[in-house]
Amino acid sequence: MEITAGNTVLSLVKGDITLEQTDAIVNAANSRLAGGGGVDGAIHRAGGPTITEECGKIGGCPTGSAVITSGGNLKARYIIHAVGPVYHNGKRGEDRLLSGAYHTSLELAVNHKLKSIAFPAISTGIYGYPIDQAAEVALTTVLDFVKTNKGLSLVRFVLFSDSDLKVYENTLKRLTTEK
Questions:
Q1: Is 95 among the residues known to form the active site?
Q2: Domain 2-178, CATH
Q3: What CA–CA distance (Å, rounded) separates 83 from 176?
């Protein structure tokens, strides 16, 4: 699914984010930037040791924020490591923190004069964020950002499963017909 919001194409696809050829891909990182399971582990393995070395020099990143490194061996030139929250009950500021991780990632992309960025579904794996709520936060944050920031020509969400893609598609349809 693809729509245009302002000057930006917003695209939803099923796939492997490590194969994306966007200027940057976003890693669903932990606060230590230490690699791990899921998307984080896949990106670190595919990107090679340079990414781990760069993350080690940065040292860490607070939840709700993001940092940038080179893309290592990936097709993307950069990796933006976004730290989403662990989901508890939705009453501990999780929405604000998740939105912050997406917003900071977009700001880093614009500040580095990047034109395209690909996101996974941050915090929905082992961090336990319900996919429907995460899609709402992610897509609302991106749509609001691209209305006022003209630097990005493409924002893509690369979802791991058909069911995740369907949730994102339904959420995007609803959000774009409400406004």
A1: no
A2: 3.40.220.10
A3: 27
- Measured between alpha carbons, how far is residue 129 from residues 39, 125, 136, 137 in Å? 15, 7, 11, 11
CB 94 within 8 A of CB 85: yes
23, 40, 95, 164: which one is catalytic? 40
Q: Is 51 helix (H, G, I), strand (E, B) or coil?
A: helix
> What are the structure tokens assigned to 7, written together?
């000057």
Residue 151, beta-bridge partner list: none
Local structure of 118: helix, strand or coil: strand
User: Model-level pTM?
Assistant: 0.96
Locate the domains of the chain by residue range.
Answer: 2-178
Q: Measured between alpha carbons, how far is 97 from 64 in angstroms, rounded to an integer?
A: 4
Half-sphere exposure of 11 (CA within 13 A, CB side): 15
pLDDT, tens digit (0-9, with 9 covering 90-100), for 52-96? 999 999 999 999 999 999 999 999 999 999 999 999 988 899 999
